[in-house]
Amino acid sequence: MPSDQVTEHPMVEVIIRAARRRWSGGVLTREPDRRTAESVLLALADAQLEEVASRGFDADAAAALDLLHRHLLGGDASAVTATILRPDHHGGWACRLDAPVSVEVARSLHAIARRFAGDRRLAAIAIETSPWRSSPPPAPPDTSLGDRVILLDRAEGGLDDLRDAARICAALRSAVMKRCPVQPVPEWIGGHREDGEASERDHLAFLALPQPAPDGSWRLGAAAILVPRDVPEDAARRELLPALAPSLGEGSIRLWDAASPPIGWRLRLRQGGAAGEALREAWWRGGDAGASHWASVTPVVMDRHGSRPSERREAIERSCARLGLPPPREVEVGREAFIPGIPPAGSFPMARRQGRRPRQQWHARIAFDRPVRGPIVLGAGRYRGYGLLSPILDAQHEPRRERPSGVPPDAG
């Protein structure tokens, strides 16, 4: 719905997009990085109520500001919560309010946002609304890997570059294999049959979870293990959880390998983490309603070499089918990431099989006809840190056309 319209529906969802304005060479541009988007939304939320009142806004305006302020800061007034701003479909950042609001409150937000339209110092703000459905949407499908996630909290320090994700996942897998109370390690944990051949069934997927940093980049923040959907709960408790408990005399699991610099990660099993607490965040799961558009945070490793773009798209489609996902309506594959702040696919260490040449790896953006629920990990590296996708916020809207140079963006 256009940003200057509010539907005559009793309750609406609100999405706020923000970017700092900047004049360069007489041309008005937007800076879509996360830090400036945060400053824009906080400037909106921190508008003084007396000033609002002096401009003729009613009590609904105050309620709207209070709602936005609480949404951004939660119980901590010192910093914006890390999961509030999410990448949107247009290469920038957006914020979806936690709860639907009345049409009156949405109108007040529009009115407040229009105040910023003529202020060159602050920002461009666009507010979009859509009808809120009181009945929940149908549950979207899970992948064959399911959504049972065991979260491992990380102590401060150590590597946090996104390009070290595969190395960290390999060290975590090695630690689990070594500490597993059942030897030889079960196929669903180690990914190999008793004869040493690679398993054809789903097995543990090890994840290094990225999170957006204040400078607009993405950094590694925690670790997680995704348990396949067909693994019985009692098998997970008996064969996996003991491997994640700290050793006697140690307060955490130390990740180590022979490479330099050292990994420096110490992990602790979150109590109750097997319920999937980590990936309930909209960054990875897409919320209870799921999401229809997704993009890779770590590159997708191709299952076979392909020189043509059509072959790479087909590889993504095969990977979706392998996980039980619906056929994608649209697939884009490229070297550059489709989410701001993610390094190019070629800058990640190349995935390879022993004795064979490295596999191709690409970033991907995928659109489905209906929402699907994550976590989604695609490709040949899905068990060891590669192919992790993140939902793109509000992707049901078609991409906006680029504005001609010098034309100010619509701020409200």
Give a quick rundown of the structure:
This protein is of the alpha+beta class. It has nine helices and 16 strands. It has two domains: 11-131; 148-391, no CATH class.
| H/E series | EEHHHEEEHEEHHEEHHEEEEHEEE
Distance between the terminal alpha carbons, to the nearest Å?
13 Å
Shape estimate: globular
Kindly name the structural category.
alpha+beta
Number of strands: 16
Percent strand equals: 15-25%
User: Main beta sheet, described?
Assistant: 6 strands, antiparallel
The percent range for helix content is: 10-25%
Count of discrete structural domains: 2
Mean pLDDT across residues: 75
CA gyration radius, whole angstroms: 23 Å
Low-confidence stretches: 1-9, 75-83, 273-280, 395-412
What's the tally of helices? 9
